[in-house]
Amino acid sequence: MNNKKKNPDQKPEMSSSSSSSSSQKKQTLFISSLILLWYTSNIGVLLLNKFLLSNYGFKFPIFLTMCHMSACAILSYLSIVFLKLVPLQHLKSRSQFMKVATLSIVFCASVVGGNVSLRYLPVSFNQAVGATTPFFTALFAYLMTFKREAWVTYGALVPVVTGVVIASGGEPGFHWFGFIMCISATAARAFKSVLQGILLSSEGEKLNSMNLMLYMSPIAVIALLPVTIVMEPDVMSVTLSLARQHKYMWILLLVNSVMAYSANLLNFLVTKHTSALTLQVLGNAKGAVAVVISILLFRNPVTVMGIGGYSITVLGVVAYGETKRRFR
Q1: Buried b (16+ CB within 10 A) or exposed e, 49-78
Q2: Torsion of CA 313, 263, 255, 118, to 10 degrees
Q3: CB atoms near residue 208 (< 10 Å)
Q4: How many Å is the Cα radius of gyration of the chain?
Q5: Which residues contact 214 (CB under 8 A, 6 or more apart)?
Q6: In the chain, which residue ranges form alpha helices assigned H by DSSP?
Q7: What CA–CA distance (Å, rounded) separates 88 from 100?
């Protein structure tokens, strides 16, 4: 006869441990899924932009940006007002509205510049130039707020710029206008980041990225509409003609626009569920993944010099992030 007594506390402990382990696995799976979707949407919209603007005959980057902003306006409203993904934050004054409008115009300029550059440059080189964002952010932060970093932090930016110079010299598909538009878009993106920190610095005026997108997007559409009419007057006739030739034309535009919004949404969610450092590391890796995929898809020629230059830039960005974290 077995008289071995069971420990009454043993089962609850095992159950608690099992529940904790299961919860951790679910959280890890959830964050991994977010990151995968973030990569897919970011890289997807970039590659689809390139395909539409360079390979599909749809040469209207301003109208394409307006489509993106329209989708962001509609989907942001649905996500915040109806789905309540984040609490709705109201604009409290005319002054705050003007600040958001200013950010919207700068944001528009950066997106349009990036889309225009894709007409003339390969995605791989576009990403190499885009990786210099920390250089422009540090430059504008110093010029506009007199914020100084440690000298070692500024030193880490040297390879960031050097790498792009090397990549430019080794880029078979280099185009001056495309390069100017790409570097302007990168600078505008950095300028918007610094300007946002200045304009929306008070606690009462701060908006999370989802609410900021909700208010910026309609302003961007209104600003882009007259520009599209003036600079791309034949956009509708050409688009309708392309739609008759390619039955998936409207689907591509719709998917592209929805992905532009999802890239912003997922960027917000990944930031919320990870950390700024994790986001920075993932962002650097995302650029490299986009370069590899674009080369495989579009078969654009690359050189050892170009790859070397881009690698130096990425390493410089990693070094900059690390030194900034250590020498605060």
Answers
A1: bbbbbbeeebbbbbbbbbbbbbbbbbbbee
A2: -20
A3: 15
A4: 23
A5: 73, 76, 77, 80
A6: 10-50, 61-77, 94-120, 123-130, 133-145, 151-155, 157-169, 176-199, 209-231, 235-245, 249-273, 276-298, 304-326
A7: 15
Pull the structure tokens for residue 242.
Answer: 């392309």
pLDDT in tens, the chain (328 residues): 455 555 555 555 555 566 677 788 888 898 889 999 999 999 999 999 999 998 888 999 999 999 999 999 999 999 999 999 999 999 989 999 999 999 999 999 999 999 999 999 999 999 999 999 999 999 999 999 888 888 888 898 899 999 999 998 888 989 999 999 999 999 999 999 899 888 887 777 888 889 999 999 999 999 999 999 999 999 999 999 988 988 888 999 999 999 999 999 998 888 888 766 677 778 878 888 999 999 999 888 889 999 999 999 989 888 888 888 787 6
Return the residue matching tokens 């932060």: 141
- Spatial contact of 108 and 65, defined as CB atoms under 8 Å apart: yes
Helices (H), 81-206: 94-120, 123-130, 133-145, 151-155, 157-169, 176-199
Please say whether the dihedral angle defined by the alpha carbons of residues 21, 25, 28 and 34, taken in this order, is positive or negative: negative
Q: How far is CA 2 from CA 6, 9, 213, in A?
A: 11, 20, 69
How far is Cα 306 from Cα 312, in angstroms, rounded to an integer?
10
| Helical packing angle, 123-130 and 276-298, nearest 10° | 160
Question: Could you tell me the two tokens for 255?
Answer: 């998917």
- Asked if 257 contacts 70 with a C-beta cutoff of 8 angstroms, the reply is yes
